[in-house]
Amino acid sequence: MRFVICHSSFVILLLWRALFAGESFFWGTPLLQFVPWQRMAAAMWRAGHLPLWNPLAGCGAPLAANYQTAAFYPLNAIYLLLPAEVALSWTTALHLALAGWGMYSWGRAVGLDRFPAFIGALSLSGSGFLVARAALFPSMALTFSWLSVWLWRAETLVRRRSPSDALWLGLSIGLGLLAGHAQTAFYGALLLVAYLVFRTLQEARSRKQEAGSRKQEAGGRRQEAGSRKQEAGSKKQEARDEGEGAGGKRQGARGRKQKARGRKQEAWGRRQGARGKEEGGGWSLQPVTLCSSFLRWLCFGR
Fold first, then answer.
1. For the whole prediction, is pTM greater than 0.85?
2. C-alpha–C-alpha distance, residues 210 and 95, integer Å
3. Does the pLDDT at position 152 exceed 80?
4. Helices and strands, counts by H and E, the chain
5. Tens of pLDDT along 205-237?
6. Is the pLDDT of residue 273 over 70?
7. Span 162-202, pLDDT tens digits
8. Which of 23, 63, 183, 264 is the most buried (most CB within 10 A)?
9. Cβ partners under 8 Å of residue 99, min gap 6
10. Choice between 273 and 19, residue whose per-residue pLDDT is larger
């Protein structure tokens, strides 16, 4: 909105005397050719007739077939509302604004910030070529104003590749062709084709590089995932080894406990054996004891 206000103010300041002070911005060819053509075409449209024939030129001449009349150009509808000499000034101002708007939109589409895009719009809409041609040969300026719109819509089509963008580009080309100057439209079409080819190849190359970088990034991610898996496997193996080492230590401790328990049992068995010997030695009769006891019994009776 800021751009529209600023740029419209620039165009109005540029043409304010022709738009509001009643002065003429044109001389020569516009007043002798374009104003009479537009006045006659508007009168025939108001009368309900197609502006096909001009009966006032010699024995008659084609009017709509005169390409510079732009009899079927939609933006020339302003001639139905205003006198031809006034409407021509407003039509010129409208197309200067259109040229700046197209240049600003193209600049934004290719990545420029608002300020440099605005400077580009002012440079085009206020250029000496465009303003001078508007004063001397209006059909050329009206057609030239569409070239920046063509480039903008072409850039948008290349970037987004949307059917709606193709329709907008076709509509802008059709309006530019109806604006009334064949040579400018032809040169603009050559520029548009060259720009489309260049930008299409450039965009295809950038997309291919982007796809390659994405593949490399995906490969790097896969390698990273593989390294993570390997690292996780190595950690699991280390944990398993540590578990096996801990299990071996537990088994060694269990074996040592069993050995100690066996030693305890062996010592207990030895103690039991010694106690049994002591008890057996107390109750059993040795041969000497037995003989002495027998002799005592014989001699003493007891």
1. no
2. 39
3. yes
4. 10, 2
5. 988 888 888 888 888 888 888 888 888 877 888
6. no
7. 999 999 999 999 999 999 999 999 999 999 999 999 999 99
8. 63
9. 121, 124, 125, 130, 144, 145, 147, 148
10. 19
What residues contact residue 142 under an 8 Å CB cut-off, 6+ apart? Answer: 70, 73, 75, 91, 92, 95, 134, 179, 180, 181
Burial category of 34 from C-beta neighbours within 10 Å (exposed 0-12, middle 13-18, buried 19 and up)? buried
Taking the CA of residue 89 as centre, how many other CA atoms within 13 Å lie in the half-sphere pointing to its CB?
Answer: 19
Tokens of 272: 């039991």
CB-CB contact of 144 with 188 (8 Å): yes
Residue carrying structure tokens 């209006």: 138
Task: Tell me the C-alpha distance between 300 and 302, whole Å.
Answer: 5
CB 95 within 8 Å of CB 142: yes
Contacts of 29 (CB under 8 A, 6+ apart): 136, 137
